[in-house]
Design a protein that fits this description.
Layout lengths: L1 H11 L9 H23 L10 H28 L5
Helix pairs in contact: 2-3
Length: about 90
């Protein structure tokens, strides 16, 4: 349900992430924080023996780690645009 609620603004009105508004900045930085926490959890909350030494699980682990990093970076960039840090 969380991912659906996070995905709806991205699908329905993606411009909200780059138009300079207080709500857009809050939303962008909140999404970036969520994905950073998810990335942290990938390495430090879940046990490494769930994926380490298993070929398929290791590939999936690193693929999702890249995905969480990309999403955190994307929303942090949107937040920086919102605050005028990037043009």
């Amino acid at each position: 349900m969380v991912l659906v609620m996070m995905g709806l603004p991205c699908l329905i009105q993606p411009g909200i992430f780059v138009l300079p508004t207080a709500a857009g900045a809050w939303l962008s930085w909140s999404f970036a924080a969520f994905w950073l926490i998810r990335l942290y959890s990938q390495f430090f909350v879940y046990r490494a023996d769930l994926w380490r030494g298993k070929r398929m699980e290791t590939v999936v682990h690193w693929w999702f780690s890249f995905l969480w990093t990309a999403l955190a970076g994307l929303f942090a960039t949107c937040g920086a645009v919102q605050l005028g840090w990037l043009a």
